[in-house]
Design goal:
It is built from 5 helices and no strands. It is mainly α. The termini are far apart.
């Protein structure tokens, strides 16, 4: 009987240790995701777009100058967010680089807003 109690207690400790390891692993995963794990805010992205992007890309995203992409076309934004963010950070053609000007969260907000433009047809 005493051996059964020790075996049960030992199994209980192992289960508790396994739960702690899982909790720590989940905490590490969520910490590693950082701000990109949070949902982007297209309303905040719209404010940034209106101030910094609208002159060239137009109010509806159709592009105002030669070479500016048409965000209303669905294929224009069919790239992963990380790739679009890289373009925003480094610039392209006449578009300036926004590296250091905006946080990654703000850039994701702009991307979320851009994705709403094709729905506004």
């Amino acid at each position: 009987m005493e051996q059964e109690i020790q075996t049960g207690a030992s199994a209980g400790r192992r289960l508790l240790d396994a739960r702690r390891v899982c909790a720590l692993a989940l905490a590490a995963v969520f910490a590693g995701l950082g701000q990109s794990a949070l949902a982007a805010d297209p309303l905040q992205g719209r404010k940034i777009y209106q101030t910094h992007c609208e002159n060239c890309h137009g109010a509806n995203g159709a592009g105002q100058i030669p070479g500016a992409p048409d965000f209303m076309r669905s294929d224009t934004l069919m790239r992963p967010d990380i790739e679009l963010m890289r373009t925003l950070k480094s610039g392209r053609g006449m578009m300036p680089a926004y590296q250091g000007m905006f946080t990654e969260t703000e850039l994701l907000d702009v991307i979320a807003y851009l994705r709403t433009l094709r729905l506004q047809r």
